[in-house]
Amino acid sequence: MTSQETFKKRIRARMAKTGERYGAARRALIVDADRPTGSAGERVWASEPEHTDEVIRTNTGRGWNEWCDLIDAWPGHVDGHPAVAAWLQAETDLNSWWSQAVTVGWERITGRRVANQRADGTFECTKSKTATVDVSMLRNALFADDDRADLFPGLATEMRSKPSTKVPRVAFPEGSVLFDLAQLDDGRARITISHGKLDSPEAVDEWKDYWTEWLEAIAAQ
């Protein structure tokens, strides 16, 4: 079992014991002042960062364990993502983009953030598909209550954007969804779904399946 799976197992065990939601149980297992170590004193990664150790070393001059050691040694790391990213940019040679990337990687490795998790602790999933779809008709259907009900049968939704908004947002029973609809030169359209404010990795998996099937159905019409 990988260290990420072990950490998730500990989270679920705590959830079962305390009744906490996933995010609360995960945060309770994180000890800010001490990094997790194995029997030989090596760093144990709670989850994998987005970039490999080779990529991060090539672009920043340090590997992941070195960056984690540096951040852990700075007392201000307990203040969270914005403070760490700003400190890295001010005190190292990292630019803004790599300061953010290193901070996110540190959060994942130390268990403060897992895959698909945002800085506020919630989770997000994205799906996209290119299909022969009339963007104007689909957009109009999203804004019309009756048509939107047909698009998402069985789900209570609410439009949260004005008609002039380029990327409309719709509230769902769990989280909210941004619909980025782009008409392409070849007559097809690219539909990108960003479903945010989810409360667990399990919710991400469930909604990814839903949006995969929904996009397939839209493309088949």
Report on this structure:
This protein starts with a helix and ends with a helix. The protein is of the alpha+beta class and 221 residues long. Helices cover 46% and strands 14% of the residues. The longest helix has 20 residues, at 201-220. A hairpin with a 5-residue loop joins strand 4 (176-183) and strand 5 (189-198).
Please, how many helices? 9
Gyration radius (Cα, Å) is 21 Å
Structural class, please?
alpha+beta
Number of strands: 5
Main pleated sheet: 5 strands, antiparallel
Topology:
Blueprint: H1 3-18, H2 22-28, H3 53-60, H4 64-73, H5 81-91, H6 96-109, E1 123-131, H7 135-143, H8 145-151, E2 158-159, E3 169-171, E4 176-183, E5 189-198, H9 201-220
Antiparallel strand pairs: 1-5, 2-3, 3-4, 4-5
Helix pairs in contact: 4-6, 5-6, 7-8
Which tags fit this structure?
221 residues; alpha+beta; 5-stranded antiparallel β-sheet; 14% strand; globular
